[in-house]
Design a protein that fits this description.
The chain is α/β, with parallel strands linked by helices. A hairpin with a 2-residue loop joins β4 and β5 (about 195). It has helices at about 1-50, 65-100, 105-110, 160-170; strands spanning about 115-125, 145-155, 175-180, 185-195, 195, 205-210, 215, 230-235, 250.
């Protein structure tokens, strides 16, 4: 009985071995299929992330000639704009200048009146009464009647001063004149007229001026004239006393 059972156990062992081998084969096949599935899944994910694979396209060669022409045109336009810009500025400047010069009526209206008149004269008659004190070297320049410039009607513009008329008339009549200017005080001190200077006829001698017979107490550069004024430059040998210098006024006429 035992001998019969032995072959049965042997067959059982072989059967188990065969089954084990089949199990290994089936497992290996299953692993291979699982790897394939994972690879396909990975490829599917990659495709979904990067998008569909498209066939390579033939590169398109663009014509750069037209853009170059446009660039050149743009450059020309910019150059023209730059050249035009100064022209505009210049025209604006011209316009401003033109505006200033295109309203002569307003400018003319704002100008002071120039048809005002006054009587003007220069004399040194007092020297004739003080010849003993007069510098003998100056006898050649002393007029016989003491009149250097006879009373003359002259014109002046509004705002002009006694000094303005004096220097203009001396130049117009070619009469020598010398003065000292002090700009900080707007003052011009008359030293000499017709080569007759201060101190030429004594220590108190010199030039003075009157307006309408009065001696202003301020310089001729500060006295603004009015229409009809009578201006007289006189040479005094006694600090004004010999020419009516006692009639001194500080009021502006």
């Amino acid at each position: 009985m035992m001998k019969r059972l032995l072959p049965t156990k042997k067959y059982m062992r072989l059967l188990v071995l065969v089954l084990f081998c089949l199990a290994l084969l089936v497992g290996a096949t299953a692993c291979g299929l699982q790897d394939d599935v994972e690879v396909q899944a990975t490829n599917a994910d990659t495709v979904s992330q990067t998008g569909p694979v498209t066939a390579p396209q033939t590169p398109v060669v663009e014509d750069v000639t037209q853009p170059q022409k446009q660039t050149a045109t743009d450059a020309a336009s910019e150059s023209q704009a730059q050249q035009t810009s100064p022209t505009k500025d210049s025209s604006q400047t011209k316009t401003i200048t033109s505006t200033q010069t295109s309203t002569p009526e307003k400018i003319f209206q704002s100008q002071p009146k120039s048809d005002l008149t006054c009587t003007f004269s220069v004399e040194c008659k007092t020297i004739l009464d003080n010849m003993d004190d007069f510098d003998p070297d100056k006898l050649s320049v002393l007029p016989e009647d003491g009149v250097i410039l006879a009373p003359t009607t002259v014109t002046f513009a509004e705002g002009k001063t006694v000094f303005d008329v004096l220097i203009r008339e001396m130049q117009a009549n070619k009469i020598q004149m010398e003065f000292v200017s002090t700009p900080i005080y707007n003052s011009n001190y008359i030293e000499g007229i017709h080569n007759i200077y201060e101190f030429d006829c004594g220590p108190l001698s010199g030039w003075m001026y009157t307006v309408n017979g009065s001696f202003p107490t301020y310089g001729s550069s500060l006295y603004e004239l009015k229409d009809g004024d009578v201006i007289q430059w006189v040479y005094s040998c006694e600090l004004g006393k010999d020419v009516g210098g006692n009639n001194i006024t500080g009021d502006e006429k």
